[in-house]
Amino acid sequence: MQSVEYLERVSKRIKRDIIQLCSANTGHPGGALGAAELFAELYFSRLRHSPENPDWEDRDRFILSNGHICLALYSSLARSGYFDLEELATFRKINSRLQGHPSREDLPGVETASGPLGQGLSIANGMAMAQKLRKSDVKVYCLVGDGEIQEGQIWEAMMTSAHHKLDNLALIINWNNIQIDGLVKDVMNIEPIDEKFKAFGWNVISINGHNLEEIKDAFDQFENNVGSPTVIIAKTILGKGISYMEHKAVWHGKAPSEEEALQALNEIGECGYADDLVLK
Amino acid sequence: MTIKRAGRDGFGRAMVELGTENEKVVALCADLAESVKVHYFAQKYPERYFQIGIAEQDMIGTAAGLALSGYIPFATTYAVFAAQRANEQIRLAVCYNNSNVKIAVSHAGLTTGEDGATHQALEDIASMRVMPNMTVLVPADAWEAYEATKAAAAYEGPVYLRLGRTPVPELTKGVGEFKIGKARKMKEGKDITLIATGIMVERAMQAREILSESGVDAEVINMHTIKPIDERAILESVKKTGCVVTAEEHSIIGGLGSAVSEVISEYFPVPLIRIGTKDTFGESGPPEELLNKYGLTTEKIVEAAQRVIQRKKNIAMSIN
Question: Of the candidates A116, A121, A128, which has its C-beta nearest B88's C-beta?
């Protein structure tokens, strides 16, 4: 387990990557920025994984269901050493392994393709079942967006996780209350989401998704929970840390201009890690 | 009298054997275990059987998760609910991931019978065939379904296995070995090629008998693999016979007929007639009556054969 101070700096590094990659190309910065602390905890402290051997049988699985925030995933994978950092610059360009939405067949470390919303939890369930079958203690983590929960398949999968008692599975909701057409509660209200998950038989934990202590505690609670799947409802702010982006739906899928990117990098601040440093 | 068995029965038997032969084989079902004949597997290997309930989209995703973790999952339901309801899940989780999922479906086509149009998949071959990475198998009888199930388990990659509900006589046992992508020549002939798939193979064989009475020597090809289609078998046959009739329990749009006409149009154009449903839904009724009403009969194959042979002759005359 890594210290909060270390993971703070890693989060900043991920945020800087997101801005740099997105401004040079296109992409979805808002949700990715809001999930930076979650990615820092997962890839740089929590997951048992082996970037040199991405197919290692006993690795923990991370499923990014809301594939559009893959900027955070790509930064985490590259900074972990799954592929060369220079390759990040190819994001969304032709002949790149860093597709606009993740492609498992192309990029090492990507556990499944995603982008079409609502599919990740079912795939994570299958992976969790597989680990139960082979009697391993591998954990499966799945990240979804809050708007994504409007997809019917999520509710099918929620039943499956609980029915098959997949206590080796944690679902994390990136709860920023924003989707493309506006506020989640205005587009199609999904609240009270904690009570809905409880009613479906889940172990429910609510946290501030930017507080690394709370994130760590939530994952610890998940690891100690027996008999039911765990959902971590992580309240986050879309575009967190960049004044002109925070809470604004327009930054779901829009890249900042060069000027805006400079301002964003200033506001995030230095992380102490060079642009070309693999963190591991 | 010939014993009749349904494709799904051959599948059920193969699954029970696979359970013992390969501990990586697992099965999922969406509340239709007995209908799809996966219940034998479920009884024998309960720890490797996952009931998902009436949630086909979730079942496909779950199967993909199991496949991406090293298992060989067979996801079972009716054809409509897999190929159509869970179409986008098959596209992303199975095909784009190239995950080793086998989608085994029964109740394909009109012979689903009294349940009616809602349950009679006549579009599934088309929607599965178009998916990159997907292999599409349509066995002709219970024996071939048994072989296809075994072959699907041994093959690495997504497979769509289309099984019939209604018992049909066994024709394929002893006719060469089953190999994915390699058509089975049921009978040699020189005047016309009859290419059939699924239960229509039986009717093509009957049509051959009737045609022979009028001196027409028909070759019968059982195209159990719609994708990848056996181009060599098609071209070798039509180069010899010069005309084709295709027959399938599926729409003539996008299925076997389309696949065969794509091959011959590109490499060796000859007259072709497609037997299948004509851009229409089915309806309730006994299987045999439905096949008659929608023109999926031995007689229609014979008629089509006579017409297509006439076209071949007309072309030959116009060239001369």
Answer: A116
Q: What is the pLDDT of residues B114-151, one digit of tens each?
A: 999 999 999 999 999 999 999 999 999 999 999 999 99
Same domain for B297 and B231? yes
Least confident window among B59-68, B77-86, B170-179 = B170-179
A5-9, A160-164, A192-196, A276-280: segment of lowest average pLDDT: A276-280
- Which of B77, B35, B69 shows the shortest CA–CA distance to B52? B77
Asked if residue B178 is part of any domain, the answer here is no
Q: Distance of CA B229 to CAs A79, B11, B125, B137, B280, Å?
A: 44, 22, 12, 10, 25
> Using the 8-state DSSP alphabet, how is residue A167 labeled?
T
- Residue B293 CB contacts under 8 Å (≥ 6 apart), including other chains: B283, B285
**Nearest-CA distance B149 → chain A (Å):** 22
CATH code of the domain covering residue B162: 3.40.50.970
In this predicted model, what pLDDT tens digit does every residue of A22-57 receive, in sequence order? 877 788 999 999 999 999 999 999 999 999 999 999
End position of a domain, from candidates B138, B169, B200 = B169
B45, B69, B89, B156: best mutation site toward chain A, by most A Cβ within 10 Å?
A: B69
Q: Quick one: B151 and B251 in the same domain?
A: no
Domains, chain A, with CATH or none: 4-268 (3.40.50.970)
Q: From the list A112, A129, A133, which residue is nearest B62 (CB)?
A: A129
Q: Which of B48, B61, B92 is facing A126, going by the closest CB pair? A: B61
Cβ <8 Å between B92 and A119? yes
Q: How many CB atoms lie within 10 A of CB A45?
A: 18
Q: Is the ipTM of this complex over 0.90?
A: yes
Could you list the residue range(s) of the whole structural domain that residue B98 is in?
A: 4-169
